[in-house]
Amino acid sequence: MDIDIHDSWKERCVEEFQKPYFKDLLEFIHEEYANYKCFPPVEKVFSAFDLCPFQDVKVVIIGQDPYHGSGQANGLCFSVAEGIAHPPSLINIFKEIEHDLDIPYPKSGNLERWAKQGVLLLNATLTVRAHLAGSHQKKGWEQFTDHIIQLISTEKRDVVFLLWGGFAKKKIKLIDSTKHTILTSGHPSPLSANRGYWFGNGHFNKTNAVLRSVEKKEIDW
Hints:
Layout: H1 7-10, H2 14-17, H3 20-35, E1 38-39, H4 47-51, E2 59-63, H5 88-101, H6 112-115, E3 119-123, E4 128-129, H7 141-155, E5 160-164, H8 165-169, E6 181-185, H9 190-193, H10 203-213
Parallel strand pairs: 2-3, 2-5, 5-6
Antiparallel strand pairs: 1-4
C-alpha cells in the first residue's frame, strides 16, 4: 500500500514512515486489503489528512475505529459517505449541533465540509476489516495517530481538541494544555448519550468561541 498523503503531512512524517512498526503496518494492511473486504476504500485511508492540510488544522476530533459496514467509512471519523444512513453516534452529534447552535439537522452525513474548514477528523485506527469492529487495532495505527496528535500539539498553537468518550480522553497526555484548548465529554453513542454524558456539552458553540478569541474563522457546523 502506497502512502498517498498530503505533502504537508508527508514532509512532517518522513521519519515515522521509515520506522519498523510503520513498515510492518503497511505490510499488514496490504495483505488485509488483498485478501478481505476492508474499509474505507484504499484511496480514502488518508482522507482526513488530504482534506485538512497541516497548516489548516484548527480543530481535532478523535474517533476510535472506522465504520465497518458496507459503504459507510470515508476516511473521516464519525463521517459517512454521501447518501448513507446516519449511524447512531452521528445522529447524536447532529442533534447536539441542532440544539447548541439552533441550526437545522443536516441531510448529509458526509463531514468533508468540516474537514475542508480545518477540522481534522482523526480515527485512532485508520482501517478495519468488513463487519469486524476493532480488527485492525494494535497493528501500528495507534502509534502513528498518537504521533500526529503530538505533532499538532508541538508545532501548532490554539488548536481545539474535542475528546469524546473514555478512549479519546486518554489522548490528553499527548496534548500541551498550556497551548491548546481541550474539551471533553461523554461519547455521542446512544449508550453514553442517553445517560446524560453527551447532550448539552455545547462543544460546537464553545469551539467557535475559542476560534473567535484567537481571531480564527469559525467552523460552519
